Amino acid sequence: MEDTIAAISTALGVGAISIIRVSGTKAIEIVNSIFSKDISNVSSHTIHYGFIVEKNEKVDEVLVSVMRGPKTFTVEDVVEINAHGGINTTNKILELLLVHGCRLAEPGEFTKRAFLNGRIDLTEAEGVMDLINSETDVARKMALNQVNGKVSSMISMLRDNLAGIISNIEVNIDYPEYDDIKVMTLADISLQIGKIEENINKILKESQSGEILKNGIKTAIVGKPNVGKSSLLNRLIGEEKAIVTSIKGTTRDSVEATFNFDNIVLNLVDTAGIRDTSDLVESIGVSKSLKLIEEADLILFVLNYNEVLSEEDYVILDKLQNKNYITIINKIDLDKKIDDSKLQNVVYVSALEDKNIEDIKLKIKKLFNLDKIKTDDLTYLTSARSKAILIKVLDSVKAVKDGLIKDMPIDMIEIDLKNIWNLLGEIIGESYDEELLDELFSRFCVGK
User: Fold this and answer.
1) Following DSSP, what letter does each residue of 413-424 receive, concatenated?
2) Which residues pair with 62 in a beta bridge?
3) Residue 250 banded pLDDT, cuts 50, 70, 90
């Protein structure tokens, strides 16, 4: 991390202001070489007016913010150049910085340096990315809890409890003559590991709610042609996004849209009508529809009120076994012909006349227990990486419990306890490998 890095931190395009960020040991020196005023000895956290210059030519009128480490995001010297927004001007300033000694920052490298320099931990770094990508107010608050360290504190508390057990065991083994040290019995370990297991299971269970709040619910609208899938999508999102005609096979590829309600995002996909077809293009769309049934968190299965169940309908119903799905019977403005006696989670609507669309939302809330998701305390662990580690932790917890049942030597049980402690450390970045860091921070935008 000896290089001084630079990148554009704002969206590249026409705008009022663009920000070019510089971080590293030579940040102030390099910016000073292209700035019209001497900032080499100015106080930290000050802003200076002047011009970016190339030789004797003014490039832009700017404000330069100087922040000296370690009281910065990266813990290094940081300089931010606030320039007039515009592609050419912004790129020109970045070009001058690179010519005078900066290296172009990699995606997420500023946040990576903040982590490597101890400014934030890995969970907080992931929270930064979640904050950038949050689509609802609840998702924003949840990400902010990660950035502020609340999620990290939850994991650190578990590690502290384990450290207490492990240190007590080691003292018992190494200094058995100390009478004033509590002897850690197998019963004591069993009680403590039971509490840790209970907390981890609670975190994993609540993480499902956190994932819904963060990522939304991937929802596929499926059914045979001409049941009103596209009309339903349009009603849900409140705009005419999908093409609606009476011609079968109009939707040949999936149409995607997002729909927010009660701080939950539905990531909607209107799929091609499922039927046997000799049309090559349409058959590709049908195959994609069937694949989306497997991938979606929720299926909205649309049927016609004025038609009996067909063979195609039964094929789809068979594929919905063990899936979260709602049966939506559309076109209730027409005469009833469908036998709905054996259908589950049924909502009756008319997409044409905009009837009972709100009932779909109520059914979704009930199906996913959305009313029970707590939004007053949004300390949720939401990353797939962290949840995968916690599942490994539970395997080690089981190994400890099995060892206790088999009355194994306490120093053998201690090995599994240390493994749990190390795994929990991976969540917050106390232990990591470079490949993991490179993969994680590569998801960030350049300049963050």
Assistant:
1) HHHHHHHHHHHH
2) 50
3) very low
Q: Which residue has the tokens 């939304």?
A: 216
Q: Is the C-alpha dihedral spanning 92, 93, 94, 97 positive or negative?
A: positive
Q: pLDDT digits over 403-447, tens only?
A: 889 988 888 888 999 999 989 998 888 876 676 667 667 766 777
Q: Helices marked H in 275-356 — which ranges? A: 280-295, 311-319
CATH 3.40.50.300 fits 216-372, yes or no: yes
User: What number of helices (H) and strands (E) belong to the chain?
Assistant: 14, 12
pLDDT of residue 78 exceeding 70: yes
What pLDDT, in 10s, does the model give residues 49-69?
999 999 889 999 999 999 999
Let me know: does 152 contact 425? Beta carbons within 8 Å: no
CB within 8 A of 30, min separation 6: which ones?
A: 4, 6, 22, 97, 100, 101, 102
Q: What is the DSSP letter of 270?
A: E
CATH of domain 5-116: 3.30.1360.120
0.85 cut: is pTM over it? no
**Residues pairing with 301 in the sheet:** 222, 327
User: What is the residue whose two structure tokens read 């508390």?
Assistant: 157
Minimal CA–CA distance to 259: which of 250, 269, 247? 269
Mean residue pLDDT of the chain comes to: 83
In this structure, are residues 399 and 133 in contact, taking their beta carbons and an 8 Å threshold? no
CA atoms within 13 A on the CB side of 91: 6
Tokens for 312? 């195609």
Domain range summary for the chain, segments of one domain joined by +: 5-116, 150-212+383-429, 216-372
Domain 150-212+383-429 has CATH 1.20.120.430: yes
Give 3-state DSSP helix, strand, coil % of the chain, rounded to 5. 45, 20, 35
Residue owning tokens 């490298």:
109
Burial 141-160 (b: 16+ CB within 10 A, else e): ebbbbbbebbbbebbbebbe
| CB atoms inside a 10 Å sphere around CB 290 | 15
CB 171 within 8 A of CB 163: no
Q: What is the percent of the chain with per-residue pLDDT over 90, rounded to a whole number?
A: 33
The letter for the amino acid at 250 is T
The contacts of residue 109 (CB under 8 Å, 6+ apart) are 5, 7, 441
5, β-bridge pairs: 23, 103
